[in-house]
């Protein structure tokens, strides 16, 4: 059973004149432990796909199933805990400036109601995992862009998600730092067996890290397949 499964996913934004069909029947299967890329130009529907995948926005029709659970069928009250199965990594990490690195990583655990003693050991483990154990007491302002993204990744992994959803994770980074962060993501997949979905407008990112790729255009799947089969054409 695939870890991420989308079936006939549609999202229509009503508008005066013609409605906007942002997603026009997306089918997607991502197996457990894969690193899958979603690529497309601006306006292709990438952001809408992310919002629908996490049910931040209700799809107009179709289903979203993550880790065997159909999120699109859940009532709002059950979505909050179901979303903990999805770790989100953003282009802009948005750390809390008044909290230390450890405090930022602890934040989702506090929200989830994890007791203090457990939080401390989990945070230490997460910082070790992303190579920032020695920066636990630093503040965000003291970090480089690459270090901030490491914190973002540690924060995303805090609740032990089944899926890591990365939205343009390296678009704000230079090429050397991009390579380091993508290397870290691959390493985490290898060590944790987590399933990774990377949304990007950069084909170079896909080439560097993805096993398989979906090319999105005008809300439709234009191409889908193993990295070599899809990327070779572009
Ligand atoms: P991408 O992230 O690939 O740039 P988006 O998902 O943002 O693409 O947009 C896909 C299409 O849906 C675009 O035509 C965009 O203008 C439209 N769209 C996105 N969000 C909204 C919204 N909230 N209301 C109306 N139209 C939207
Ligand atoms: P953009 O694509 O506009 O540059 P991002 O990819 O950083 O922005 O963020 C996409 C969406 O996720 C935005 O709606 C933003 O408000 C939200 N977001 C970004 N960072 C975080 C965060 N750390 N925690 C929660 N939501 C965030």
From TrEMBL:
Domain ABC transporter: 4-234
Subunit details: Homodimer. Forms a membrane-associated complex with FtsX.
Shown residues within the full chain: 3 to 236 of 329
Family: Belongs to the ABC transporter superfamily.
Taxonomic lineage from the root: Bacteria, Bacillati, Actinomycetota, Actinomycetes, Micrococcales
BP GO annotations: amino acid transport
GO cellular component entries: plasma membrane
Alphabetized GO MF terms: ATP binding; ATP hydrolysis activity
Keyword ATP-binding: yes
Function: Part of the ABC transporter FtsEX involved in cellular division. Has ATPase activity.
Protein name, per record: ATP-binding cassette domain-containing protein
Keywords: Amino-acid transport, ATP-binding, Cell membrane, Membrane, Nucleotide-binding, Translocase, Transport
């Amino acid at each position: 059973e695939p870890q991420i499964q989308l079936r006939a996913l549609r999202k229509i934004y009503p508008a005066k004149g013609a409605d906007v069909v942002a997603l026009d029947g997306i089918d997607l299967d991502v197996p457990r432990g894969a690193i899958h890329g979603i690529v497309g130009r601006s306006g292709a529907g990438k952001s809408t796909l992310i919002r629908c995948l996490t049910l931040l926005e209700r799809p107009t029709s179709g289903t979203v199933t993550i880790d065997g659970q159909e999120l699109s069928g859940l009532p709002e009250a059950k979505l909050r805990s179901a979303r903990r199965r999805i770790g989100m990594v953003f282009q802009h990490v948005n750390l809390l400036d008044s909290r230390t690195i450890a405090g930022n990583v602890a934040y989702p655990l506090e929200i989830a109601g994890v007791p203090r003693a457990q939080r401390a050991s989990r945070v230490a483990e997460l910082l070790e995992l992303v190579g920032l154990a020695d920066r636990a007491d630093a503040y965000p302002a003291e970090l480089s862009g690459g270090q901030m993204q490491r914190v973002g990744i540690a924060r995303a992994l805090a609740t032990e998600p089944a899926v890591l959803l990365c939205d343009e994770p390296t678009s704000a980074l230079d090429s050397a730092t991009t390579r380091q962060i993508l290397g870290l993501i691959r390493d985490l997949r290898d060590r944790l067996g987590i399933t990774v979905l990377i949304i990007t407008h950069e084909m170079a990112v896909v080439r560097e890290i993805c096993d398989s790729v979906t090319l999105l255009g005008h809300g439709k799947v234009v191409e889908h397949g193993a990295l070599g089969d899809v990327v070779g054409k572009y």
